[in-house]
Amino acid sequence: MSELSELYQEVILDHNKSPRNFHKLKDADRTADGYNPLCGDKVTVYVKLDGEVIREISFEGSGCAISKASASMMTESLKGKTAGEAEALFDRVHKMLTGEPGANGGAADLGKLAVLSGVCQFPARVKCASLSWHTFQAAMKKAGGTASTE
Ligand code: ZN
Fold first, then answer.
1. Which one, 7, 56, 69, 121, has the greatest CB density within 10 A?
2. Residues lining ligand 1 (ion), CB within 5 A?
3. How far is the CA of 128 from the centre of ligand 1 (A)?
């Protein structure tokens, strides 16, 4: 096992074992449910906005280690960002996950999120990793609804 995949596993396992911001947000302004039928991952994302700024973000759900770790890392990354910054980050993460050419250069400054780049080698897992991001996007676009990876 390479050093990178060890790091990748370590971070994923850590976030799966003790997910950050893993709770319901009672006074959330935005919320959406996500479901990945391929794997059975379910996630609910809660967002509390302060104008354009994401003041609080949390999630609940059940699913595989990758879906949970990805959601956990997402909440850490998006807290304090503006809606526009979040959108730009989503775009970069999505490109990284789908292994779009040219995305690797961008992974360098994605911080911890870069560990998810290993997922693009496992196409069946890409939807696990992107589920929470799609759900977040759905939450930001409207006050409710269900996001699906399909
Ligand atoms: Zn999954």
1. 69
2. 39, 41, 64, 67, 128
3. 4
d(CA 2, CA 8) in angstroms, rounded, equals 10
Chain centroid, CA 27 distance in Å: 21
29 alpha carbon – ligand 1 mean position (Å): 27
CA 80 – ligand 1 centroid, Å: 27
Tens-of-pLDDT digits for all 150 residues of the chain?
456 677 778 888 999 999 999 999 999 999 999 999 999 999 999 999 999 999 999 999 999 999 999 999 999 999 999 999 999 999 999 888 888 765 555 566 787 888 888 887 788 889 999 999 999 999 998 744 566 665
CATH numbers and ranges of domains, the chain:
3-142 (3.90.1010.10)
- What gap in Å lies between CA 68 and CA 83, rounded to an integer? 22
Contact 120, 102 (CB under 8 A): no
CA of 148 to the centre of ligand 1 (A): 13
Q: Compute, in angstroms, the gap from residue 97 CA to the centroid of ligand 1.
A: 14
